[in-house]
Amino acid sequence: MGLNLSHQGLPEGCDKSDLLRLLDGLGKQGLSVSATAFKLLRYYVWRSRKEDYHAGRICGLWEKVCDVAMHLDLSPRAINGAERELEAAGYVQRTTGGNGARYGRRQGGAIVSMAGVSLAPLIGCYDDLSASLEARMLHRQAMEICRTEIHHLRRLIRDHGDTDLCEQSDAVARHGRVSRIGRQEHLEEIRDALKAILALIGGMSGALETSD
Question: 158 and 173 in contact (C-beta within 8 Å)?
């Protein structure tokens, strides 16, 4: 059992705290899991021991479902469902003893056998999750740049003083309320529409130079 549950460890220089920060950065949406499953996964990582993340070790927990439910103020049924979800998503591996019980044994501080929830799959996909978080951060940054350019274009249009063009700008850009738009494609459509309006007053080149 120990051989099946052992893992290759986190990347060099990373430890449990880095894994927790990675999970917090991704959130439930980045991991594509429910709020309950995310809460449970973070709890399991938090409860695990730092030394269990070394290469060749077993990293997991064998806490009873009823105890986990009590700590998280959830029902045992919710815990079981969240564990199934995490296992299906490829973040944990569940094992049980012959009678379905959970147990574990340490020797010299290291887990030598266990039946419960293994975090080896999560450890194994650390690099992929890190890349996903970086991509999400770059995407958010690109959206913020686009929002800034939208506000800049609207200001240039307003400064020209043409009432009709200002009304067109407000209609296109929702009166500047673009902070809640979650699709970059939509933001780019608004930006391009504002550029077209600005081009009508011969200010397109100036807008681009200022934006750059």
Answer: no
Measured from the Cβ of residue 47, the count of other Cβ atoms closer than 10 Å reads 12
**What pLDDT, in 10s, does the model give residues 177-203?**
888 888 889 999 999 999 998 888 764
Structure tokens at 140: 């958010």
pLDDT band at 207 (very low <50, low <70, confident <90, very high): very low
Conformational region of residue 109, where left means phi above 0, alpha means psi within -120 to 50, and beta covers everything else: left
Q: What is the pTM of this model?
A: 0.76
What are the helix (H) ranges across 73-183? 76-89, 120-124, 126-160, 163-172
Secondary structure (DSSP) of 97-117 = -TTS--EEEEETTEEEEEESE
Identify the three-state secondary structure at position 178.
coil
- Phi then psi for 176, rounded to 5 degrees? 85, 0
Quick one: 17 exposed, middle or buried, by C-beta within 10 A (0-12, 13-18, 19+)? Answer: exposed
pLDDT tens digits, one per residue of 122-133: 999 999 999 999
∠ CA 61-32-183 to the nearest 5 degrees?
A: 155
Residue 101: count of CB within 10 angstroms of its CB: 11
